[in-house]
User: Fold this.
Amino acid sequence: MTEQFEDFFHKAISQALNWKEGQPPSAIYEALALVCVSEALAKLSEVRKADRDALARLGRRALLQAGGRTDEEAEALALVLPLARRGLAFLAGTAPANGRDGAAIYLTHPGPSELVAMTRGKPDAFGAASVALHVLQCASCAADLSLLERVREPAGISLRAAAADLSPMLSPTEGHSVGTCEALSAEAVLFDGGVLAVYANEPLAVRLVVEGGTTDDMRPGYWSGRVPQDTATLDATLYVGDKTTTWKIRLH
Ligand SMILES: [Zn+2]
Assistant:
């Protein structure tokens, strides 16, 4: 996943560095927004220092001159500029405290598809930057992001899984069912030691987010992790593919 990101991040940087006076600065803003994604993937230090410095210089200049001529332009820039500024701050090693600069941070935990989309700079550089800023301040999303490579390409999973040294999927017959989510066609199964697994009917990316929980494994149609045991009911958020829902799971 990161290899792909590096490819288009480098392309975005060279497009920005080829910017000529008089051209719209959108390529510069986009490259700066992708710096946020690069930071979330811990890949920023892999960019040549000369390129980082050149982009920072160019970015500083573009941001100083930023301003929309029409209300519509100004409105679009209000979203774009704080994200570009945050990217510039990462380049300069002076990222401000979260929330102080008006950057639109993704407020909920992004679903697995959104996390993977972020690593591809989608839906666009700024949407990806917004998710990246969430990941940078959310340990649970950061941890899950590193596990997501396996569910990226469902068709390629069997090869990947065979090649990688993965612990086997938990068999639902070895635990006991603690609930089904009708809306997203998934079942939760509890195992000894506070391990919970979620099985979906479709081979889509599955993610369960629970306060105080951690993810062990994610595969198409499957998620497993550890959940707090001191509570009778878990307030979970379930993601299956592009869909999401809240889910109360009764453990005891
Ligand atoms: Zn999160």
About this structure: Residues 71-92 form the longest helix (22 residues). Residues 2-137 form one domain.
